[in-house]
Amino acid sequence: MAARSGEKAPVVALAGLPNVGKSTVFNLLTGLSQHVGNWPGKTIEQKTGVMQYDGLTMQLVDLPGTYSLTANSVEEQIARDYLVKERPDLVVAVLNAASMERSLYLVAELIELAPRLVIALNMTDVARQEGTKVNVGALEAALNIPVVPMVASRNQGVKDLVKVIGVEYSQPTVGRIVKHIESGSETEGDISHIAQLLADEDTTPYPRHWAATKLLEGDQQINRLLRERVSEGRWADIDSILKDKEATAIAIAGLRFDWVRRVLSTVQEKRPLGQISLTERLDRAATHPILGLMILLLVMGLAFAVIYGIGVPAQQFLEVSVVERVQGLVFNQMTFLPDWLQGLLGDGILGGAGLVFTFAPILLLFFLAWGFLEDVGYTARVAFVTDRYMHAIGLHGKSSLPLLLGFGCNVPAVMGTRIIESRRARLLTVLLAPLIPCTGRMAVIAVIAGAVFGGWAILVTVGVIAFSLVVLAILGLVMNRFVLRGKRAALMMELPLYHTPNPRTIGLGAWQRTAAFIRRAGTVILIVSIVVWLLSYFPGEGIEESFLADIGRWLEPLGKLMGLDWEMMVALLTSFVAKENTIATLGVLLGQEGSGLTEVLREMLTPAAGIAFLVAQVLFIPCVATAACIRQETGSWRWMATSIGLQLVLSLSLAILVFQIGRLIET
Amino acid sequence: MRSERVEEYLEAISKRQRTETPVSTSSLAADLGVSLPAVTEMMQRLAAEGLIEYEPNKGATLTAEGSRVAITTIRRHRLWERFLTDILGLKWDKVHEEACRLEHATSPETEDRLASLMSETDTCPHGHPIPDKDGNIPDQGVGLLSEFEPGQKVRIAAIGRETPDLLRKVEKWGLKPGVVVSIESKDSKGSMGLKLDDREVVLKKDSAAALLAKPVGPDEETVKEEEVPISRLQAGESGVVRSYAGGRGMLGRCLSMGFTPGSPVRVIENYGRGPILVSVCNSEVAVGREIAGRIMVTRKRG
Questions:
Q1: Which CATH architecture has domain B227-300?
Q2: What is the interface pTM, i.e. ipTM, of the complex?
Q3: Cβ B250–A492 below 8 Å, yes or no?
């Protein structure tokens, strides 16, 4: 990045708990100079940016929000590996002034690993509301670490923070007062015993004493790493101590909290009142088994009303006024181009990837709504309310968040599974997410149901969506019972205080997610659109004679079982590119103009075939973007293939079943 | 509103009644530091208001109404003391007088708020039980420390007289309520030798008589409060984390969220199924029922 000539820019890492306004602080420090990528080898989002102070350019890295530095989750592993391996020049710990105990617990761990620390004491306004106050000078004196009080949500204290970071970098505070918090009478013996056993072993990059502590804390990653390096006999010794000393983990955490409470007794001017806060009163309703569920339905209903109320007209506008107009331009004005190039531009690229792109406004709105609910603090309550239902399918409440995201687009849903700690629960959620009808599929259902069922369209639409959710639940039950057996993950999550949303954080987040979608539309989807178009164009005797039609005809026997002609099968196939493509394909195959499609469909499909097609469509294999994302998130081609295979079998067999039953009723 | 003096008298009578019925005017004069005629005059007034039954030369007994007023005053007094020490951080030898002033200026609403704020404790800083809202005072089964015999192991329950002087001495001796001591010796004058942890303290008889204590059974260590899974706590109940049962699967996460032994917790919602909502480290944490079944706590009453 923007390093000064030849010299590496100092690196500042931002650490902190979840829900302490860390991303807001990050946004304020970096402005728009952000880069969003992934942590190497991991699928957790990594944000980096640049900040300036007094002619000094510093690179800022946002570590994942963590409660500790023991590898209980991927986030924690990333955060501490970054500190140990990359050795940032300075670490900024963002604390929540209203929840000092847990915040300082993380500081207790950071102190061991970060050579230079600055504390950003955020949310001092919330602390004041809670009736507590941290004495900044006393905290600085107690830790010998510079402390900057701030209210990031109101842009207060940022300049001070930048200045303190700059000063601390150029003239570091010398002398750490606090050392070895974890050493106490119940722990020191065990820690040094294990450290001794590791004395001749290679624990790099981790400090030996620290690695011994983490082993005792039950850190699986360190355990695996050292098990490979240490000789078998020696490891047996270590392992027997670890088995014997399970309580030491509790003692170590206890010592950290003892330290935290000692520090707090001198720096906290008033103990938090522990009063029944507004948040608690609101949660009486929001987490209630019945009332909470009603609130959830209301909130989602409202969100979708807004999303579709504004998003669908915007999508229509882009489709009609932008994509179709450019298509017209290509076909009517650019006649100097060869036919195949016109077709490629107009039908392949614009009709495929271009059409997918028109869904960006709906997604942007969806992500805005989601970001709003997230920033207000509501999404954590959703996890709480849905937990008991998710249990039935072997998941816990956190899984319902990515599944809800799936109603917007399955891609963020698959990515959203990152918040789930257990790999088993995450895989199951990844497999289930593509069964959620996304906006693209809903658009298809709306068009087809409208064409075939007229007045009954709404009922059919709702029915098909409900059907897909029932299938999802049954699949979850079956997978949980018979396939992905194993220990169930359990819910353990903080419900943050409700607070006024920060438009900047929400806007930036929604924009980054939408931009990722657009980038995908420009790459994977573009390529597949072109391939599909090539198949429909060559060998060049018109679409009826194309390779695509050949494939469709080859599939016709299968289609007949569902009452579908080859055109419908091709439409189903092309939904692999993007679910919305079904409509575009049918438009190309069945009518010269999209307007005639409704009549053709009504004549072509009996009600039984219509429903069969909708069932097949709504459950059909994940679109190419989702499939790519599944591959990326699970790190395995096998899981992607499993997901595709599973849904292929599921959708076709259920569609056949529906058609055959429907035919019996019709006759 | 009843005058401060009246409440003051009723409180004093109520406290005396535990050892003396009816309460003589001379004891009251001593407790309140006023003259005998003044007490007599007040007795007549209180009797006229129906707050006490008073027989000249014998003494006073609280009526039901008088008892109610007295206990409310005591409740407010002890709640204030807790507030002053725990929240405002005043020393425990200063709070009695402050509370004496505050208790008379306390509305029922303030009293309720105080009670919910201090719900984690059921005694005043000096160890005296805080009466509940209905006026019940839990019986602590205590006796004067001076009346126990060598060889007995007792827990200091409360400090009888709340004079700053005595309280400062008690603090110096390390005999605050809750401390367990074994009685080593007792001489003819009543001086007692006490052993606590690693130290020994010798108390004169009158000092020992100023402390209330409760015998510690040989098996108290084992029948100490019952540990229950946190999922067993009802909404609104508080407890203290003690240990973990079962595997260590989520132990790390539990610890970093603040569920360490000794941490106070309060259950906000518990619907019998589904996750429970717990307040720990001053924030709300959703805990899945299966983990909640493994975090063992002891209940806090009150």
A1: Roll (2.30)
A2: 0.81
A3: yes
